[in-house]
Design a protein that fits this description.
Radius of gyration: 24 Å
CATH topology of the largest domain: D-amino Acid Aminotransferase, Chain A, domain 1
Strand content: 25-35%
Shape: globular
Number of strands: 34
Structural class: alpha+beta
Number of helices: 16
Distance between the termini: 74 Å
CATH class of the largest domain: Alpha Beta
């Protein structure tokens, strides 16, 4: 078994892996960007190394820097978590070439399943059912139109060949929508996966998204851990997951069939470690969608219903040990639900809402688990994913698990941020959820979503000068991180302590358990303000244009998502202080729209 492992990730998944390593008696190493200097994961490991400032491409996605940190720390293996470099075959190969173990499948398996077109072709050859569509990339809009009209029909899904996580997925309901869908999917494929190629699939209007967790070792053992139902999605990104699927959706026979498909898919690519076969279930037919060659965000619900620690099993498999379980040992018990607690505003079409956290208190009690990567005084940065935490509950059945989740959501306290907590509470209280529906109608109902608007909770007030507080200063020596904690009154003595600590390194600003109060941005009835901070990706109108209410004006890229901004009223644009490629702050004016009668 490994003695030391570096985790090439951040946030809640990094903390989750650190905990598994500690329980296994393995030393842990963290990496962090300058933006994450004070992040929870950076102080959670036994060692931490600074990867530098700038966007993710210059730190968390920088293969050379990560491998260098692993070698300097003496780590024997690298765990990629999910996102960033987790499904990057060249990174896995670079680890092997550097004498480091990549905790995940071999590069050949990542490469085979990383391209959705190659994966579809491979699964089709292995006898695994796939959604009807192309197995070769479609090069032009003209070619796409010919295939859609002649072979697949409308509506058609246009997907990035290297896509995943809802990125690079567009739907053309009719011929007129195809060009925009093609260009959008290709653009996101290039931006997020460095691969602009796309392919076409028959668009299934309301399928269930059902996936199966698989585990495999280097000794030829492959098992599945049952299914997860991830049908509650917005913009093709999951927000609520459960295990198992509702019993009236997936019975024992269907579970066995889905599990067999997952095992065969893993065997077909010589898989090792933890992976997930995603599929679509509609009208009793199950189709292979894609394989995620990594641990999934929602692995937690499967752990709760099977008792199997998926992260530990993946580490053991990478170290050459056999799986701890056989297929006949796997039994699903009870029901688990996971809610993704994202810093998003559901009332504004799930717009990212980054910011600093004031008071923070997680729910507790029987059957409640929270996987989080933040704490009081922390920050959800616009540079990264908007996830604050994952709230997971378990109970004897789906109905009781739902009640437990609602109780836990009521207990969750996150001051200073808008999160999806009100959305989760509202959706889990609906008849649609109780019936096990996909709830797509609700998630696309803007009127219903607007009812979830609420004021941002005020942040905790400043502590009195006579109170003692704990503050932590970060000191770096040759790029390696050390923490110095000081307890006392919040006086200038803290500054001198930081200066003293900086004599042998560089000290960061203190991580104080308090924050300043900020007022929400305002705006008049004619002014449309940006609901989020990000970069102006595309501007679709110009000054002087007449627009209708709800018309698309621009697209803002923020937190790995494209956010469409629409007109809040009909009228004429009299001011448009935005330009493509420029940054924009939350609350900044996007456009001034005057009504015709004005």
């Amino acid at each position: 078994m490994f003695k030391k492992v570096l985790v090439a990730n951040r946030g809640e998944i990094a903390v989750r892996i650190f905990r598994a390593l500690e329980e296994m008696g393995i030393a842990s190493v963290a990496v962090y960007s300058e933006q994450d200097r004070d992040a929870l994961h950076a102080g959670r490991a036994e060692e931490a190394y600074n990867l530098g400032d700038g966007p993710a491409a210059e730190n968390y996605l920088n293969v050379e820097k990560i491998i260098d940190a692993a070698k300097r720390s003496g780590a024997e293996a690298i765990h990629p978590g999910y996102g960033f470099l987790a499904e990057n075959a060249p990174f896995a190969q670079a680890c092997e070439d550097s004498g480091l173990v990549f905790i995940g499948p071999p590069p050949s398996a990542i490469e085979a399943m990383g391209s959705k077109t190659k994966a579809r072709e491979l699964m089709q050859a292995a006898g695994v059912p796939i959604v009807p569509g192309t197995t070769e990339p479609v090069k032009t809009v003209k070619d796409a139109l010919k295939i859609a009209k002649g072979e697949i029909g409308f509506p058609v899904a246009v997907k990035a060949a290297g896509g995943g996580g809802g990125k690079g997925f567009r739907v053309a309901l009719a011929e007129a929508d195809l060009e925009g869908a093609f260009e959008g999917a290709s653009r996101e494929g290039e931006k997020f996966f460095s691969d602009p190629t796309v392919y076409l699939e028959r668009y299934l209007p309301d399928p269930r998204h059902v996936e199966v967790q698989v585990l495999a070792d280097r000794h030829g053992n492959v098992i599945h851990l049952g299914e997860r139902d991830c049908s509650i999605q917005r913009r093709h990104q999951k927000v609520i997951e459960e295990s198992p699927a509702p019993e009236w959706i997936v019975d024992e026979a269907m579970r066995a069939r889905i599990g067999e498909i997952g095992v065969e898919a893993a065997r077909a690519v010589g898989y090792v470690g933890a992976g997930t076969i995603e599929g679509l279930l509609q009208d009793g037919e199950y189709f292979f969608l894609e394989m995620n060659t990594r641990v999934q965000v929602e692995h937690c619900v499967t752990e709760m219903t099977t008792g199997v620690d998926i992260v530990k099993e993946g580490i053991r498999a990478a170290a050459g040990e056999p799986l701890s379980h056989r297929q006949q040992d796997i039994h699903l018990r009870g029901h688990a639900i996971e809610c993704r607690i994202n810093a998003e505003d559901a009332s504004k079409n799930f717009a990212p809402a980054p910011g600093k956290i004031g008071a923070y208190s997680e729910p507790k009690g029987p059957g409640v688990r929270v996987d989080s990567g933040v704490g009081e005084g922390g920050e959800v940065s616009p540079m990264y994913d908007p996830m604050v935490a994952k709230l997971i509950v378990w109970d004897a059945d789906r109905a009781q698990a739902t009640k437990r989740m609602l109780r836990a959501l009521d207990e969750y306290e996150i001051e200073g941020l808008k999160t999806l907590i009100p959305f989760h509470k509202a959706l889990l209280s609906t008849e649609q959820w109780a019936k096990g529906e996909t709830c797509r109608g609700l998630l696309e109902d803007k009127a219903w979503l607007k009812t979830l608007a609420f004021e941002t909770p005020p942040k905790a007030s400043e502590q009195g000068e006579d109170e003692k507080v704990e503050q932590t200063y970060t000191v770096e020596v040759s790029g390696k991180r050390f923490d110095v904690r000081v307890i006392g009154p919040p006086t200038a003595a803290f500054a001198s302590s930081a200066q003293g600590a900086a004599m042998n390194g560089s000290a960061a600003a203190p991580r104080a358990k308090r924050s300043e109060r900020k007022s929400a941005a305002g705006g008049g009835p004619d002014t449309l303000e940006s609901p989020l901070q990000g970069n102006m990706w595309k501007v679709l109108v110009k000054e002087g244009d007449a627009v209708s209410e709800g018309q698309l004006l621009c697209i803002i890229e923020a937190m790995k998502m494209e956010n469409e901004i629409t007109a809040h009223k009909a009228g004429v644009i009299t001011a448009l202080p935005i330009s493509e490629g420029s940054p924009i702050a939350a609350g900044a004016p996007i456009a001034t729209i005057k009504s015709a009668e004005e």
